[in-house]
Specification:
It is a single chain. This protein is mostly beta strands and 259 residues long. The protein folds into 2 domains: 153 residues, no CATH class; 91 residues, no CATH class. It has 3 helices and 27 strands. A 13-stranded mixed sheet has the order 2-4-6-8-10-12-14-16-18-22-26-25-24.
Length: 259
């Protein structure tokens, strides 16, 4: 079953059309104004179109697209797939194990409950995992990643990112986006990790192939600077453990693993 807001609605006096689906599996398509689209029950497919839309998946497993405009999208119950598209969007997974992608713009992504995967993609985004074991990928731009509770994986991507694992045994992943080779090794950004805890089992994971690492001891250094702990690679600062590191450690191998 499909509900499509057609051109006839544009000729009416309705400024903010509201469409609410049933308990069936529906396709709901908005138009180029500010829509309120609610899926109801069922596995729904909702497209906002242009305009600053409010989209609510509600029950079951929904696929929700904001498309153009700065949209607010709420997954509701179920394992939802949420795509912001263009604009500065607010994307909320709510319950279930959700996949959320920001697209372009400076977006806010919240997994809330469930084991979620959040991808900021373009822009300077804020990603908040919430409860359970979440995967957060900042993508391009200067992003802020907040793991929340449980054991999260945080991947800043390119840009100057701030990574906060929260409680649980978290993994902070460097995939070589912040360093590149061009006759000499250069650092374009320095990521900040705000709550690294050896006591809780946090670990910094670094892509060995991306950094062309042969021996960890030969290239990595740990030093102090203004109350912070600085991680260096071949003499270049690549990460700052803001406020230091909680717990004791004997050497770099207790902070960093190569993959």
């Amino acid at each position: 079953m499909s509900f499509v807001i057609g051109d006839a609605l544009l000729e009416s006096t309705v400024e903010y059309p509201i469409v609410t689906g049933t308990d069936l599996d529906e396709t709901i398509i908005g138009v180029d104004i500010n829509d309120v689209l609610r899926g109801g029950g069922g596995n729904d497919y909702i497209l906002g179109g242009a305009g600053n839309d409010t989209i609510e998946g509600e029950g079951d497993h929904d696929t929700l697209f904001g498309e153009e405009g700065s949209d607010n999208i709420y997954g509701g119950e179920g394992n939802d797939r949420i795509f912001g598209g263009l604009g500065n969007d607010g994307l909320f997974g709510n319950e279930g194990n959700d996949t959320i992608k920001g697209g372009e713009g400076n977006d806010f992504l919240s997994g809330d409950q469930g084991a979620d995967e959040l991808r900021g993609e373009m822009g300077d985004d804020i990603l908040s995992g919430g409860s359970e074991n979440d995967l957060l990928r900042g993508g391009k731009g200067d992003d802020r990643l907040l793991g929340g509770s449980e054991n999260d994986i945080l991947i800043g991507g390119s840009g100057t990112d701030t990574l906060t694992g929260g409680s649980g045994q978290d993994t902070f992943v460097f995939k070589g986006k912040d360093l590149y080779y061009d006759s000499v090794l250069r650092s374009s950004t320095t990521d900040v990790i705000t709550d690294f805890s050896v006591t809780e089992g946090d670990m910094l994971q670094i892509d060995q192939d991306a950094y062309q690492i042969r021996s960890m001891d030969d290239f990595f250094t740990v030093s102090l600077g203004g109350g912070d702990v600085l991680l260096g690679y071949r003499g270049i600062e690549i990460a700052v453990f803001e406020g230091g590191i909680e717990g004791s450690y004997a050497g770099i191998s207790e902070l960093v693993t190569l993959v």
